[in-house]
Amino acid sequence: MLEKIWPFGRSRFRKAVEEALEKAFQETGEVLEPLSELSEHEDHYLLRVEVPGLGPENLEVRFEGDQLVIEGEKREEKRAKHLAEIVYGRIYRAYLLPKDAKKEGLEARLKRGVLEIKIPREKRPQEPPLRIPVEEA
Question: Assign residue 68 a region: left if phi > 0, alpha if psi is -120 to 50, beta otherwise?
């Protein structure tokens, strides 16, 4: 059907679109945001971040103010390709952690393309909600 609408066929059209998209992303220097999840446990939080293809030498985990930052780069090896679907580039993600998270004692492990960061929690008494009266104007 597409061959009838598009004069140069499906494969040529797809290749042209893929090349245009690849060129567009290379020129902008897009930063990739890894997928992640933060789970709560009794004495710690567990942040899991997907970073397939990256090793510990390509990752940096640090605090900047109140944010936990994960940064790295997945570099492309130069070689002849017949198919190119893997995404390469710089990854960056900053997480604002809950108030009871400690900055000291964090542990980071990389296992099967998933970075796991164990973040200890401070034991704090739960604060009651503070009611603010609403006045009529």
Answer: beta
- Please say whether the dihedral angle defined by the alpha carbons of residues 33, 63, 47 and 129, taken in this order, is positive or negative: negative
Task: Choose among 115, 118, 72, 69: nearest CA to 94.
Answer: 69
Structure confidence at residue 3 (pLDDT): 47
Joined tokens for residue 75? 């570099």
pTM of the model: 0.67
3-state class of 114 per DSSP? strand
HSE value, Cβ hemisphere, 13 Å, CA-based, for 86 = 12
Nearest CA to 34 among 116, 102, 121? 116
- By C-alpha distance, which of 111, 67, 74 is closest to 93? 67
Residue 112: CA atoms inside 13 Å, Cβ hemisphere, count? 1
pLDDT at 10: 64
pLDDT tens sequence across 79-137:
887 887 778 889 999 999 888 899 899 999 999 999 999 999 998 777 889 999 999 98
